[in-house]
Amino acid sequence: MNERQAKLRSIAGSLLAEGRVSLFIGFGPGLEPSRPVPWFAKNADEAGKLVLDPFCGPGLARYLLDETAAGPAGIVARGCDGLGLERLVADKRVGRDQVYVVGVACRGAVDPDKARRLAGRPVFGAEVNGETVALTTAGGRLSFPRSDCLLDRCLACADPSPRTADTWLEEPLPGAQREFEGVEALEKLGPDDRYAFWARHLERCLRCHACRNACPACNCVACSLDNPEWLERTTGLADHFMFHFTRAYHVAGRCVACGECQRACPVGIPLMLLNEKFMKDIRDLFAVPDPHRPQEAEPLGHFSPDDPEGWREGDETL
Amino acid sequence: MPRIGVFVCWCGLNIAGTVDVERVAEAARAIPGVVHAETYKYFCSEPGQNLIKQAIQEKRLSGVVVAACSPSMHESTFREAARMAGLNPYLVQIANIREQCSWVHTDREEATVKASAIVAAMVAKVRRDEPLEPLKFPVHRKALVIGGGIAGMQAATDIAEAGCPVILVEQGPNLGGRMAQLSETFPTLDCASCILTPRTAEVARHPLIEVLAYSEVREVTGYVGDFTVKIARKPAYVDWDKCIGCMLCQEKCPRKIPSDFERGLGSRKAIGVNFPQAVPNRPVIDREHCTYFEKGKCGVCAKICPVGAVDFEQTETVREEKVGAIVVATGFDVLPREAFGEYGYGKYPDVIDSLAFERLNSSSGPTDGVIRRPSDGKIPREVVFIQCVGSRDPDKGKPYCSKICCMYTAKHAMLYRHKVPDGQAYIFYMDVRAGGKGYEEFVQRAVEADGALYLRGRVARVYPEDGRLLVKGVDTLSGQAVEIAADLVVLATAAVPREEARGLAQILKVGTDEHGFFSEAHPKLRPVETMTRGIFLAGSVQAPRDISESVAQASGAAAKVLALFSRDELAADPLVAAVDESRCSGCLACQPICPYHAIEPKALKDRQVASVNAGLCQGCGACAAACRSGAMKLKGFTDEQILAEVGTLCL
Predict the structure, then answer these.
(1) Model's pTM, two decimal places?
(2) In this complex, do A224 and B628 lie within 8 Å of one another by their Cβ atoms?
(3) Number of structural domains, chain B?
(4) Looking at the predicted complex, does its ipTM rise above 0.90?
(5) Which among B592, B629, B639 has the least Cβ separation from residue A297?
C-alpha cells in the first residue's frame, strides 16, 4: 500500500487533534483517481482521506493566503509549494509562524491529460520509477518515458523538496540548477517570429485569470490588471499582450517557478517562458545563480548605496 | 466642468519659426474643456505673464497649459504667475514644444501636428491635476559639521559667524586634520601651522561652535531641518574638564610607540597629544599600547597628574542632538603601503610616502625639520620622487587623478633644495597637472630656480644596493632607461577616502562613487549638495582637493546651510509619494527600493500597509514603479495622469 500517504494522514491527523493547526492543506479524492483535488482537512476524519500519489499535481501554496486567516494551517509541501510559501512570507502576506510545513521529496507529478492520451483509456494509478512511469489501466500496467507523462512544470523542476520544513515525511532531495532551454530556443528566433509565436498562443487566451489566481506571487490585495485605467475589459490580442506581459513584469524577480500559471491555463499558453526569460536575465545580469528562489535582497527589489551609479558617470560626458 | 486655458508661446522664432503657433492654439480651442487659447511672443516676459494672470482671473480658469520651453526652464515662473492670480500653482502644466518639438524638427507641417498633440496630452493631464500645497517643515537652526580639518573648520566658522550654533565633531583627539601634518603649503610656501593654528584657535574659542573631539557620529535619523544625531564620545581615559593641559603625563609616560601622526618616523607616548599646538590641548590614552591596560600595572600618568584627571574607568558616552543641516568634511587618506611592492614601500625604510616627507620637513616633526633619511639619519644627497603612485592606475583600482600630488611634489623638491642646497631632486611623473592660480609658475620655479629634474615615465623597480636605493625607470621622452642611485625615495601615493567614510555614508544615507568618495547631487550645478536634502559636502570627502579648493567648497556648503537656516519653515515640493491604503497589500516592496529610507510600515486594524515620510521623500518615484497594485502614487505624476497623457498622445 501507499506508506507515504498513510504516514501523511497520521501526521496531519495528530496536528489537527493536538490543535497545533486548525486546518491541513493537502490533496483529497477527486472525481477520478487521476485527478485528486486540493483538500482542506479540519479534523482527523478528514485527514484520513488525504491522498498522496503521483497524480497530486496542483500547487497548494497559494491557498495559504486565505487559509491562514483563521489560525495556523498545516500543509504538505513539495519544493514548489515551499518556494510559494517563501514568496508569500517574503511579501509579508503570510506569517511563517502561521504555517506548519510537512516536507516531502517529490519525484514529479503525472499530468492526467498526458497519461490519458498515452494510455488511450482511463488511468487509475501511476508510479514514477526513475526515468519511466508505470500507469495502471483496466488493461493492465503500461510503461512510458517520464518525459512524456509528467506535468510540464515538473519536467523543468529543480526543487523536489522545500528548503525548510517543520517536519519531514521523508528524506528531502537536494535542489538543482534550473535550465532555460525553452527560452534559449525562443531567443534564437527573430523578432517577427517571436511575435508570431506569442500572437499564436495569446490569441487563445480567455482572460479567465486562472494564471493570476493560481500564482503565489500574484498575492496583492488589489490587482492593477483589474483597473480599467490600465486594461480594458476587452479580449483583443493587444489586451492579451498587455495582460500577460504586465503580469510577467509584476512577478519578475519574484516568480518561484512553480509553473502553476501554465498548469492552470485551460488553453495551454506556455506562460512559464515569459517568467523564465526574466529568470534567465536576472541570473545572467545580476549573477544570481537561482533567481527563482526568494533572496534576502531581491535583485530587482532593493536600492544599495554601493550600486554603481553608471548613469551619473554617463551624465559627465554631456 | 474644467475651464482650461492654453497659452502657446512663440519663443521668438525658436518655436514660431518651425511651428504654426496660431494653428496650435486653434486646435487647442477645439479640445473639450479648453475655454481659452492664445499665443504670444514671450510668455515668460512680464507682459506675457500678465496675459496669463489676466486670463486666469477673467475666464476663471481651473487649469493652465503653457506650451513653451522645457519645464526645467520656466515651470516655476508660470506656476508663480498662476499663484499670484489665485490659481493653485500645481494646476499649471508645461507642454514642451520647444526642446521636444520645434528645435528637433524642420518640417513645419509635421512639427505643428506634433505640437498640437503635445498640447492635447498636457490638457488631458491638467484635467486630472489636483491642487497641491507645499509641505512645510520646521527648521532647527543648528548645524552639525563632521570632520575637524580645514574644510570642516571653515564651514563651522562661516556658519557660526552668521549667528547659528554649530556642533563640530572630530573623530581624532584634536582639530586640524591632514593640514596639521603638513610642513609648508603650495603655491605660497607659507607654513601650514602658521595659517592653521590661528584658525584652530578661532574655532575653539568661538562661542557658537561646540567642538566634540574624539567623537563619532553613530546614528542620523530625520530629515532636512530636523535631523536627530547620536554622537558618541570615545573614552580618552582622561577627564578633559579636570585636565589643565600641563602634559606632565606625556612627559613621564614610560611607554614609547611609533606615531601614526608622524607616519611611523617618530614616536609618541601611550598618553598625550599628537603635536604641541594641538587643540583641544588634552591628552588621550592609547588603550592598545598602554602598559596599565595591558598588564594592570604602571599608572604613572595617574600618579603624576596634579589634578587627578586620569580615569582608567572612563567609558563611551552618547549624546543626542537636534540639527537642521549637516556638513560632511571627513577628508581623505592615502593608499596603504601594502599596495606598492614594486617600490619596496614598507620593506626599505628609505622608501617613504609624501606625508612622511611632510613630517621630515616640519619643524615640529621627528627630525625638527632637518631632512634626514629614516634608515641612518644621513642627509640624503639624491632624492627620487615618484608621482601617480596608485593614482591614474586602473590596475590598482584608482583610475582617477589624485590632483594634489603634482603640486606638493614640486613643493617637496623645492623645500628639499632649500634645505640641502647641493642635493638633487628627481621627479618621475606622467603629466604635470598644475591648473590653478599661480600653480604652473610654482612648478616652473621648482624646475628653474630649484633645479628639480623632471623625468617623464614610470618607475619599474626600486631595490637596495650599497646602502642606497637603485631606482630603475624609463624616461619616455628620450626613450632611454634611467637608473638613479638615490638616498631617499618619496612616493606620491593616491588619495583615497577614509576607511570610516563608507560606514558614515551609510549612516547618513548618502551615496558614494565606486571608490568610496561621497557623491554630489550634480557634478557641475550642485557640487556641495548630496542627494539627501540638508546634507552637504566640503573638501576631500567628495574627491581629492587641495586646501584652497576645500576652503572654497566649505564656504559654499556653509552658504547652503545658511540659506536653509534663513527661513522659519522649509517649504518642500508636494510632489512626493503617497499610499492608497485601500490598495496596499503591505508587501513593502517599496521599502528596500527607496533610496531615502522614507517608507515605513504602518499598522491598520487588520493588516499593515506602507506609509511615506514626506519629509524624507524626494519624489523620485521608485516606489510607485515598484508597486504592483498601483497603491503607491507620486503626487503630480499619478498613473491616471500619466496614462491620460500617454493615451491622448497615442490615440
Answers:
(1) 0.69
(2) yes
(3) 4
(4) no
(5) B592
